[in-house]
Amino acid sequence: MTRSCPEPPPAGPELAAADVAIIGAGVVGTAIARTLARYALDIVLVDAAPDVGTGTSKANTAILHTGFDAAPGSLESRLLSRGSVLLRSYAAAAGIPVERTGALLVAWTPEQLAALPGIEAKARANGYQAIRPVRADELYSSEPALGPGAVGALEIPDESIICPWTTPLAFATEAVAAGVRLLLSAQVNGVCSADGGHELVTARGLVRARWVVNAAGLGSDAIDAMFGGGGFTITPRRGELIVFDKLARPLLRSVLLPVPTARTKGVLVAPTVYGNLLLGPTAQDVPDRADVATTEAGLRSLLAAGRRILPGLAAEEVTATYAGLRAATEHADYQVYADGGRRYACAGGIRSTGLSASLGIAEHVAGLLGEAGLPLPPRPGYPAAPPAMPYIGEAGPRPYQDAGLIAADPAYGEIVCHCERVSRGEIRDALASPVPPADPGGLARRTRAGNGRCQGFYCAAAVSRLLAGGPGPAAGVSAETPGAAEVRPR
Amino acid sequence: MSGDVAVVVVGAGPAGLSAARELRRLGVGSVLVADREAAAGGVPRHSAHTGYGLRDRHRVMTGPSYARALTGAARAAGAQVRPGTTVTGLAGGPDGSRLVTLTSAAGIETVRAAAVLLATGCRERPRAARLVPGDRPAGVMTTGELQQRVYLGGERLAGRALVIGAEHVSFSAALTLEHAGADVVALVTEHERQQSYAAFRLGAAIRWRIPVWTSCAVTRITGRGRLQGVEVTDGRTGAVRFVPCETAVFTGDWIPDHELARRAGLALDPGTRGPAVDTALATSVPGVFAAGNLVHAAETADIAALSGRHAARQIATFLTGGVLGRDRVPVLAEPPLRWISPNLIGSAAPPLGRFVLRSREFRRGARLEAWQDGRLLARSRPVRLIPERTAQLDAGWLDQVEQAGGPVRVVTGSRSGH
């Protein structure tokens, strides 16, 4: 059964055949990789980008959802409930910044107020019982900076904020430590399938694997079509977001959610684990799967919404604006299935809950693969403890605040990025890590360097020099070096 | 607690270093200057062009030599200058002292100071804070980043470059870009004309023939990975054109680095966005002073230096038990004026005996007037107001201010006909 061999493969390093190739190293793909790595399988994790977690995974609202508002009975509801529980405990063990701020779903009109009991009932149908109605006076005593006109709310005490960057990095780090081969800058352009397995035609050469898992996010429909699927089409839905200065953080305690519409969860205001406030997202369908540009109309509409929700924002400085694309499809639910005949599994159409559900999706996919006939022999020594990730949140001590750490290694007292208080020691560690950054953005996702209010006025030149100095040959490699993106365990 | 000092100065730029030297000259025992950058000197360290030192050192030198001279002078006077040291905490201590937390490679220590001078300077608003939409490619930066890349890092920047802004610093950015090998396409300003000195402008225009596109705004950034160009919209006609370039430098649009001031609970002035200061440069917290471009972003380095020297004299008075006024009359700038500094009337004349201001609009032959409770205190000679350019108001009228009266309002009087 040979399918779609579009072109002869370009010259490149040929990798030994793997048991499983996972396409997509976003939060879903890396979660699947670390989950499958608990079994004695030879796994290769492939991504088009030079780093893990660069697509939807890096540009979202950074909320660890409970799944209270998912469609009851849907796969998304089930995997979200399960995934958020798994991720909460994983994050605590791995040092992924999470803060249980809780959320308030605020009604601003009588119509919205009338919709709250339905949302509460839906949460209970999803198995989430901690939700409760909040009167306007209690709402304002809890969030005194809230704009005038709120008439009531629902409290969802377990909604949390999370670091969306450390999460896929932790999964990838754990996977690499378990022997998963990471092949970056390797866009999959085609596939040749035969009885023995699949040959992925990638920008870095052929990748052979007996089984393939599609976790390609915005490209998951295209990959699915290559494998004879084609049951869904991604229409990227762009969300623009505004990050406010850390000095605005005291304006808000919890996440403020709007009453959702059929199309979108609406514009929220949320604290971030880095100590900023986040406003967004917009929701606009765009034809281009790489179009993460912000727009004047989008930013203007967000600022207008922000002024209504939290009037104090108007006086605060904006630190950053960005946009991300959610992998929306024509279906309401995730597109997750496995086909033993094709030795293929798909985890596509993960619209906007992939971060929260990632470990639930991974567990589910592993189960589907086992049922479809992939042998899952246990790997000796596994499951292992999650990796200890550098802590880049504000809820716990950062290296610059740790006198003992600085005494042991003065590089942690040498602050390079002043706005985010990132030390030279942390940058050095990131460059020498098992999954090192490929560019300044990658370094920022690992350390926060350059993400602050000055956007590089003070530190960008120094950070670039540290990045160019790069890691020593024994410590790690840069994705720019040929053959370098394949990171092996140390 | 690892020691007591008389004064901690936060920031080793022109204001902080000049203050430290003056404090020592006035006999203040121990002066510690902390700066978070790897070397002392502040912004002049990476401004390779000349023009520094005119009004404070009475000679003209390049930024780096000026930075070295100020650092050397502070050290020679006996101040302890510690670069690579971030002030990570500022809180009230016993007996009216201040507790200052210092973080560096040497560790974390807290010193007790009788007084603190904040001289943390200012920075340019980056593209994101200006809400310029579009892609987020590499190649978009501020002048501060550009100068550090070129003058501290020795980077070359090939290709076309666009400078956003047409004030002094914008022309400085154009010089830096040319020095780095870039071809400067134009300076773009939303104002109806450029705002730099004629001679400087002429120099830039004649030597490199750089046009200034007035009444134009950059409305979109394009490029995935690397900058490909920007969209420029003409505010008069609405015409939009795409300008290919590999570098875009956002210049000016200064904001004080007020994080420490805000976190320490100092009252801010809504106009300058720095800490509110009186004419003695005292803030709302007793024993905490602020000087330089933290309180007037951005004046030239020599003006910042003289502001630091002024603060030092007031701090010396404070340390010897001198009373600094408590009931301070606010000074408010009214539109089209954006801000005035200092913004409270205290126990001294302001630095150089004058207030500094900014205007939102161009005005020719305008007279600045100071009013209190319907009473005209002073009217200036006709002055020319230019956005982002300094304007001054002599403070000779301070003795007429009624201490128990309302705020002093500074307004732009009617055109004088000049």
Task: Explain what this protein looks like in three dimensions.
The complex is a heterodimer of chains A (490) and B (418). Chain A contains twelve helices and 22 strands. By secondary structure, chain A is an alpha+beta fold. Chain A has three domains: 241 residues, FAD/NAD(P)-binding domain; 149 residues, D-Amino Acid Oxidase, subunit A, domain 2 (D-Amino Acid Oxidase, Chain A, domain 2); 71 residues, no CATH class. In chain A, strands 1, 2, 9, 10, 11, 12, 19 and 20 form an eight-stranded mixed β-sheet that branches. In chain A, strands 13, 15, 16, 17 and 18 form a five-stranded antiparallel β-sheet that branches. Chain A has a four-stranded mixed β-sheet with strand order 6-7-5-14. In chain A, strand 15 and strand 16 form a beta hairpin. Chain B folds into three domains: 190 residues, FAD/NAD(P)-binding domain (3-Layer(bba) Sandwich); 127 residues, FAD/NAD(P)-binding domain, CATH 3.50.50; 91 residues, no CATH class. Helices cover 21% and strands 33% of the residues of chain B. Chain B contains eight helices and 29 strands. The mean pLDDT of chain B is 93. Chains A and B meet through helix 7, strand 18, helix 9 and helix 12 of A and helix 4, strand 14 and helix 7 of B.
